[in-house]
Structure formats: C-alpha cells, structure tokens
Specification:
homodimer, about 425 residues, alpha/beta, Alpha-Beta Plaits, TIM Barrel, eight-stranded parallel β-sheet, five-stranded mixed β-sheet
C-alpha cells in the first residue's frame, strides 16, 4: 500500500506535458495545504483514504504537483500530467478538474480560475471551422463590428411575425439576426416554419439592401434533433446555427462541430452565471470560453460590460483576448494563465445583454472592432420601431468607425438621435 | 407598444397548464417586487425595455404570473404557461427558467429551487427505461441495497489491473463495480481493452459466485463516441453504461436514452456542486435530479449524508423521495413542490462519496433499502485489500437487513471487524 501520497512540491517546475490549473481554495476547518492535498487527489488519482490498489508506478507517472500556494489570497496552482485526460474529450476534462472537487466538505469554496492546456490537448480538439476571418469573409464586413439583434419578444411571435421582425432589422441595418435562447420549436412557432419564413425574408433583404444578411436560428435540443435542425437550415440556404452551449452541454456541442455540414456556430451561454458569478466558487467564464473555443464555436457571447448583466470590464476584455489571440499572456489580476493556441482559429466575441446605441462608444473603447454588437430591446424598443432601431444601432457603429462622437453623429441621424433621447449616452 | 407588462398577480391561481417554479431571489438595489418583474420577464417573453413588437395577444397567452412573494425569506413562485417550453427538450427548459436570470445585475443572488412540471411536459420525456424494478430484476436482488464499488485508484490502472480490482470486488461481495468519473479512454487504459478484460472477469465472477454481477463503464465523451462505446459494451455482453450527466450535458444524455440499445444508465453528477452548493444562488440538486429522472437515467448519485461530500440529510432524503415516488408531496423546508410523476418510472438512488462499512447503519436509517451503496476508498482501503473490503461492505448491509448492529455482526465477521477498527462506526 502506498501511504499518504504527498501532492505538494513547491520546487516542482511544470513541464510542457503538464496541464496547469489555477484554483482559488478556501479550506473548511483544515489548513490550506491540507485542502490542496485533497483537491489534487480527488481531481486525479487519489481518494480520501489510503488504498491497497495504488502503486508507486502509478504515483510516479500520474501524480499531479501542487507547485504554488499563496496563503494570503488562496491562489493555488496544480500541474497535472496530460495523460490524466483523454484527448479531444471536453466532458472528461471537466469531470476531472471541474467535477467532484466542488462538493468536497474539506473546502468551503473552490473556484476553477483557468487551465493552461498542453500542445497535445489543444491540438486534439477541432477548434472553430470559420473563426473571425471566416465570419468576415461570409459577411463581407472587413473592419467594423457586426451589428446584430435578437428577435423580440423572446418567445411568442408566429413564424410570419418572427420573419417580419427579422426583416425589419435587416432592412434597418442589422447584419445578423438571432433567435432568443428560449425560443426552440414551439406549439405556435415550429422550427421548420420559422426557418422557411425567415430565410425567405433574408433573401429579400439581401436583394433589397445589396448586403449580406445572416440569420442565426437556435437549434438547441437533443443531439440528433439538433443535427436534423442544422441540416434543415443548411438545405434552406442558411449558413449559421445558434447553440446554447451550456444547456445542451459539451458532448452535444462537440457533436455539432463534428457534423459534416459546414455551418458557422454562434454560441449562447445561458446559465453560465449559475456557476461563474461567485468570485470564490465555481468555474470562471474564462475557462468556459476556452473550452468553447477548443470545441469549435465561431462566435461566443462574453458579456457587454455596459449592459444589464454582471461581469467586470477586466473580465470581459480578458475573455476577448483569450478567444481571439494566438498567444495569450498571463494576467495575474484576471487569474489568466499563459496559453499558446497553436493553429486553433480565433473566435469572434459577441457583446450582448442590455445594450443600446448610446452604449456603443464605451463598448467599442473596451472591446475594439472584432466583435458582434447585439441589441435586442435596444433595437425593438426604439420609439419608431425595429427599422429605426436597427438604423440607430448601425449609425452608432458608423459614428465610432468615423471617429465621431455619438452625440455629434446624432445631429444628422434622426434614428440615432431618438435612441439617445430615449436611453441616454 | 405594450407598455410595462405587469407580471405580479398575487391573486392568480395556477392552472394545470402552468409550470410552477420556486426561486430564491435577493434583489440588487431594487425592491423584491421589481426584481421579480425582471426575473419573470427575462425567463419568458420580456426584456429590459418596452418593445414595439410585443402584442396584447402574446402577453395574454404567454405571460407568466408571479403569484407568491415572501418578503422575509425571498421565496418567490412564478407560474409559466407550459407553451413557453418545447416538449421533450431539457436544454430549452434550462435556457428559459435556468438561463440568463443568473447573470442579471438586478439580482445579487438567485436560486432555482424546484420546478413543478405539467402532465404534458412530464409525458413528453422518456423517463427511465428500467428504473428501480428493472434494476432489481436484472440484478436479482429483491430487497436489500445493492453494494457497489468504484475501481480505485480513480485513474492509472491498466485494463488488466482494472479488471483484477473489479474481479476482487465482485468476489468479495460487491454487486456492482463502476469506473470513476475521470476515467475515460486513456493512453494507458483504452476503453475497448478495459471493457473486454473487465467483462471477461465479470463472467468469471458470476460463475464462481452464482450471483449476478454488474460492471458500469464510463462512456462519457462526445455524443457519437458515447453511442459507439455503449454499443461496444452491449456487444460484449454488458447491460450497464455510466454517464457523467452534467459534464456531457442534457442533450447528449437525452441522445443516450434515445439509443435503441436497451442499457441501464447509471448517472454520475460531477460538477453539480459548482452551482448547487450555495444555498442562495444557482440551481438546486433537487431540480437536477428531477431533470435526470425525466431524461431517463436509471440510477442517480444523490449524496451520502455521512460521507466526504457536503449535502444535508434533509436535502438528500428529499431527493431520494423525488426520484423514487410517483406522487411527491410538497415540503416547504426542503423547497420541494408537489409533483405527480404519472407513468415515469422511479430512479434508484446511489449513495456514494467517502462511505465505509461503519457508516452503513446510519445511511440506511436515512435512506432505506432502495439504494445503491457505493464505497471506493471504503473498500479498497481495507487493511486486507479489496476482497476483504468488499466482504466487509456486504456484511455491513447484511447486518442491517438482519436488524443487527454493525458491532455485534463484526464479532463473527472478521472483515467487517477490521473495517470498523480502521474507520470507526
């Protein structure tokens, strides 16, 4: 029997074959060191008692090393041999380093802050098929942010009404229009009917505006149903699908990316804040964003900074860097580890949630041009309706691209003027 | 434009077509009533501002009603028309009532405590194929709890070593043996090799003991890979598969239940405590357990009460009732709503996490006989090894079934005696 495996080795220097994980750990009635031992054991090869089936050989090959412990902040870093994880299996990564540890009674709080993956693991996932450049090619928008909306009300419109709202948004100036996350195939709005009516009006809007227009229908459902829905969209001339990645889950997301049909995946993240919001417990949204990039989403909601949802500027900006860069530098204050992304394409960041034209200047100052700016209420709530709302949204982006202030630009753009009058700037 | 939809109606009496959801809500700098309005809107048909596309017709048909607000406790009940949800689509239910609301800046904390589903929605899901009776038929165990173990160490054994540990556990007295949640298809232990070696030794153990023995291999991975792995297990004579339901996600779980192969689904819940643990925020494990029963797991981990994981006795006992009864009575202290389960089969509760033979008496007092008692370290950590550990575990269950105390029974059962000597009682 191998007695009392010691996982702590502050002199250990991680190798290129180690996955490095940063945790915040708040122990429960034991020392932080003791809690680190429990966490390292439970997330790898150990359990709560010495066992007869452990061998020195296994310990030597697969034991993780706790190599950094900050007693003041509770920040802990653990290096896991990459062979502890199955390649290309996201469920397995979370079951290991983001699984049982959250329920251990030896910790009061524990948070998975970031994971630095090895080259072998990074390359074992598919990553985005299109990414930022692919999306810009399809939409023919070279530099500016994409302007998008969500059909509102979230749920309740018939397929015809839905298509009309989308059409109005495209005609006003939106590039992309998406379903809301709780709109699936409803009794009053069947998925297939919605696709037909909405893509028909997309074709019309493209003809009338001369611009490329995108519809992002929510296919979230049981896996095979999702694939069928994606095929239906493809057959009807759509290029995009939207997936609510956390409520469908990692395995289904990987299956959607595995489909032979070449479709752009727009990722919504409903439910993330159930476990990302508490700064002391759960999983950081940064970790979720990395996992989403690995699994291969092309666009990902990361927050709006200036909208209706929580999420600090630093958090959202860091996430934007993580999903769009090839070599991410470590940032201590954001609990962000270094990460080389090798040949994994960058993901286009989507900013959404309580945005309106009057907030676009601040948003773009934080996030730059490589984003989708989505407004739901901020477009359909315009005093003159959806067309005017979409025009105001597009004008707000134009203003910033022309380095003009929103207020100045509003002087000659009535839709933007009315939006600022309703919601401020 | 429909101005300021009012979602609060304390006189409203929910109909049989309403889904009732209990939330805990802690508002952020606004009144609880105002926060309720935001939550009801965001989880159904509304958004943060008045919009031009809302109609009185949609509001009349689909508006949810906040019909109960407890200002002291923050307990809120909302009735949602069932047409807000797609039938048989678990992702859609969570995207609606367990989605964006967690990230709203108008609440500090919000927790989804329970959901009472309608007959139509309940019947739209498949539920367990086998359930408690099906498992008892397969295992030929009529009354007592099933005794199980997890192969330990969690990860690191070769397929041959793995099979030998499983064999030892079966020979000692275990009925079921499962993979640990972080064991997938590893470089040193390929899934297919493990299935072959372990099911071969299962056949041997069955012949030698005359008892039915079960192996529950972890198939958690991308959906199509999971289906292939399940088929492999089936082809090799296995009846069970294990799925880590939260890290694979709801859509893949539904797909696995949809498979034509008739296999018992053992559900692990790694990662749940990232969002179930904080009593003020996230989603209750009770809600997750209901969703798992609907999706059709046959066995579900719900906690051990007396083990290494957090989870109060009341919470675990209530969950046991929820997954095993056909008509669940409301229990205010456990935030449990009434629920009729119609023809959905009951799920066998699995108690696991830091258990050893000395804790079996207390556990069975709480949970009764309709459970799987799983011990990992509590079996392989036995001073005389796995066979003796499994024998001790089985003896502890025998003792309680014979209404004897563990200490008394240990006087004539050396394996149990040594287990109690190591871990206490």
């Amino acid at each position: 029997m191998v007695e009392n495996l010691d996982y702590i080795d502050l002199k250990y220097r991680p190798s290129k074959n180690d996955v490095i994980v940063e945790f915040f750990i708040e122990p429960n009635k034991i020392t932080l060191e003791k809690a680190c031992q429990h966490v390292a054991a439970e997330s790898s090869i150990g359990t709560w008692t010495t066992i007869s089936t452990m061998t020195p050989e296994i310990a030597r090959k697969l034991k993780p090393h706790v190599f950094s412990i900050n007693k003041n902040s509770g920040e802990v870093k653990i290096a896991y041999p990459q062979d502890l994880f199955e390649q290309g299996n996201m469920s397995n990564i979370f079951s290991s380093i983001g699984g049982n540890i959250f329920g251990m009674s030896s910790v009061n709080n524990i948070r998975l802050q970031d994971m630095q993956l090895t080259k072998k693991l990074i390359k074992s996932f598919q990553g985005p098929r299109f990414g930022v450049n692919g999306v810009r090619k399809i939409t023919r928008i070279k530099k500016r942010p994409l302007v998008g909306t969500i059909v509102k009300p979230k749920v309740g419109l018939s397929p015809e009404q839905h298509a009309k709202v989308a059409y109005a948004a495209w005609m006003g100036g939106c590039d992309v229009v998406k379903d809301d996350e709780n709109l699936a195939s409803m009794t009053f709005n069947k998925f297939e009917d919605r696709i037909r009516t909405t893509l028909d009006l997309r074709d019309k809007a493209e003809k009338e505006t001369g611009e490329k227009k995108i519809y992002m229908p929510n296919i979230s459902a049981e896996t095979a149903t999702m694939v069928k829905r994606a095929e239906f969209v493809k057959a009807y001339g759509g290029e995009y699908i939207m997936v609510d990645i956390l409520t469908v889950g990692w395995s289904a997301l990987q299956s959607i990316r595995d489909m032979e049909h070449e479709m752009v995946i727009h990722a919504h993240r409903a439910g993330h804040a159930a476990f990302t919001r508490n700064p002391k417990h759960g999983i950081s949204m940064l970790t979720i964003a990395k996992a989403a990039r690995l699994c291969g989403v092309d666009q990902l909601h990361i927050g709006a900074i200036v909208g209706k949802m929580e999420g600090s500027a630093e958090e959202v900006v860091s996430m934007g860097e993580e999903i769009e860069q090839q070599l991410v530098h470590p940032k201590k204050s954001a609990h962000m580890l270094e990460q080389e992304w090798y040949n994994v394409k960058p993901v286009l960041a989507v900013c959404s949630g309580g945005l309106h034209p009057g907030r676009v200047d601040k948003l773009m100052k934080y996030m730059g041009n490589n984003i989708v700016i989505q407004m739901g209420g901020g477009i359909h709530g315009h005093p003159d309706g959806t067309v005017a709302g979409a025009a105001a949204a597009r004008q707000s982006v134009e203003a910033i691209m022309k380095r003009k202030s929103l207020r100045d630009y509003a002087k000659t753009h009535i839709e933007l003027y009315k939006a600022l009058a309703k919601w401020g700037n």
